[in-house]
Amino acid sequence: MKILTTVKNVVDVELNIHVENGAIVEEGLQYVINAWDESAVETAVQLKENNNAETTLVSVGGGEDNTKMIRRGYAMGIESGIQIDDAALAEGDSFVYAKVLQKVYEKGDYDLVITGKQAQDTDNGQTGIILAEYLGLPCVSNVIAIEVIDDQHIKVSRLGDAGTEIVELELPAVVTVDVSINEPRLPQMRSIMMAKKKPIDVMDLAALGTSHDEIGGATLKSEVVEFMAPEKREGGQKFEGDAAEITAQVVGLLANEAKVL
Amino acid sequence: MAKVLVIADIKQGVLKGSTAELLSKAKAIGAETAVAAIGNNIESLIPSLATSGSDTQYVADDPGLELFSAGPYACCVVDAARQFGADMIWFGFSESGKAVAPRVAAQLDAACATDITDVMLEGDQIEVIRPAITNKVIQRVKVNAGQLVAVVRAGAFEATEGITGTENVVRLSPPAPDLKAVIKEIVSEASGEIDLADADVVISVGRGVKDQAGVALVKELADELEAGFGSSRAMVDAGFMPHYKQVGQTGKIVAPTLYMAIGISGAIQHLAGMKGSKVILAVNKDPEAPIFNVADYGIVGDLFEVVPILREEIKKIRSPAG
User: What residues 25-64 of chain B have any CB closer than 8 A to a CB of chain A?
Assistant: First the structure.
């Protein structure tokens, strides 16, 4: 089974993010592997270890940060990496990324695509699903478990509205995973060192056999025109002291001041 | 006049309140409204679909739609959208909506926006507001494609009182089943429980409740208040609470009238899922816990001591005579 998995390098959400004049202030931002993609990589590596799958990791975007994401995947156990690096990818939406991934998929002979269910920078949760539509492949999103049935079939569990949905998928297929599917491994120092020496297949859009126009880069379906700081929710009253006393006081406030009891 | 197609939020045969909220918003921005209802044995919901504020009801009622499957659901939505000539297609906040919306957008070559909190319409130009980066920024997004598929964040819109519609039912043909993604079963641990999404009061537990006994203590309070019972990610990962109860960035987004965070420190991923609540009460023994930065009322104390008192005090207030 050949697996293609994807990785996006995203802003570290644990740090403060400032907005000025409708834009995010770049200074002080740090970039990390998207948590959902890290789970996707771990899922792929586990399938390699337990089911003899072959694994490829692709990042869409240039620069050293993206190279680092691939190296991180290598250190976790991924076998080969592709980096799509092109200045034309500076502006993109989920549809553009899905088009690029479609081209990557079509260059290989993959049985399964695993992506994170969303990226923590945009929180869109669309790319994997749109990719499946473009490829005409079956797709299940928000997956929390994968079981290989045979060469042509997998069984996945998805967190749905009415409970855990159990779906049998015919391969090739696309799944998008939730972080709760696994606990991604921390690579050992030795693997990290080895990963630095491994080659990465770097390609621009032309090498991938496509163009800025074809991927829809010039005709974005939507674009962010302004960033704003969220309305700050202020902390209210904090009570310390005798538990019986302060709890009674707070219940009184919930009933009479907030009127929610 | 812009046309908005709202996808009815039907869970276990019940039409959820978000449907009327979305239709109210659509009317408020001056749009012509229609609703698409997809499921099995949903005939009885048709009158309430109309009174929720829709002027046309596209109904796909078929045994093949009993269990959720994104492919066939998307087919029904696309069919309804084409027949209606929808400029916008709105889903209420749900896992099924999040799974279907991008498919519909790809098939219609429309734009797609998830988690929107507002929508503006000026002439033909559509813009939406949505949070991103785990709620650390708000985006204003301009739609360039003529059409938008959107998933609306829970609690974003309010239902207008006295809203009306007209009954005008259009039957959709049942879609072909997805033979390559076959839904086998839905394992539900939640039957009979209060849905976190509609509860007026939600009570969630975090690491501070420690174990099953701690969970049980807080659950008694939740049961008495007929509250939804949620969880932080830590308690889910530790195996004390099921996945579907997780409130936060990667779980359920809730916006109840009252949210009680019991033993929850308040990681930003959790805050992203409950910050829209009207009133927040936090109980935590650490006075520096970040949850207090968003709580309207904070009790610094040992939850094992506080929760039983909370129950007694609430009981007293609710039944002053007894």
Answer: none
Same fold, B3-171 and B201-318: yes
Which residue has tokens 């002291």? Answer: A241
Under a CB-based contact definition with an 8 Å cutoff, are residues A144 and A114 in contact? no
Extents of the domains making up chain A: 2-203, 232-261
Domain locations in chain B? 3-171, 201-318
Helix (H) or strand (E) holding B7: strand B3-7
Q: A165: which chain B residues are within 8 Å (Cβ-Cβ)?
A: 67-68, 183, 185-186
- Are A162 and B300 a contacting pair at CB < 8 A? no
In chain B, the residue whose alpha carbon lies closest to the alpha carbon of A226 is: B140
Residue of B nearest to A171 (CA): B180
Average model confidence (pLDDT) across chain B: 94
Cβ atoms < 10 Å from Cβ of A226: 15
Q: What angle do CA A227, A233, A239 make, to 5 degrees?
A: 160
Dihedral pair phi/psi, residue B202, rounded to 5°: -125, 130
Question: A with B: how many residue pairs have Cβ under 8 Å apart?
Answer: 265
List A30's β-bridge partners, or say none. Answer: none
pLDDT tens, position by position, A242-253: 999 999 999 999
- Amino acid identity of B305? E
CA gap B295, A238 in Å, rounded = 8
Work out the pLDDT band at A232, boundaries 50, 70, 90.
Answer: confident
pLDDT tens for residues B224-251? 999 999 999 999 999 999 988 999 988 8
Partners of A98 on chain B (C-beta within 8 Å) are 106
How many residues are given for chain A?
261
State which fold the B201-318 domain adopts: Rossmann fold (3.40.50)
Fold annotation for B3-171: Rossmann fold (3.40.50)
> Which numeric CATH code is attached to A2-203?
3.40.50.620
Handedness of CA A11, A13, A17, A22 (dihedral sign): positive
Nearest residue in chain A measured CA to CA from B306: A243
> Is the per-residue pLDDT at B322 higher than 60?
no
B315 lies within 8 A of chain A by CB: no
Select the residue from A240, A251, A259 to test the B interface by mutation, using most B Cβ atoms within 10 A: A251
CB contact under 8 A, B138 and A240: no
ipTM: 0.94
The strand pairing partners of A243, in sequence order, are none
Return the amino acid letter for B185.
E
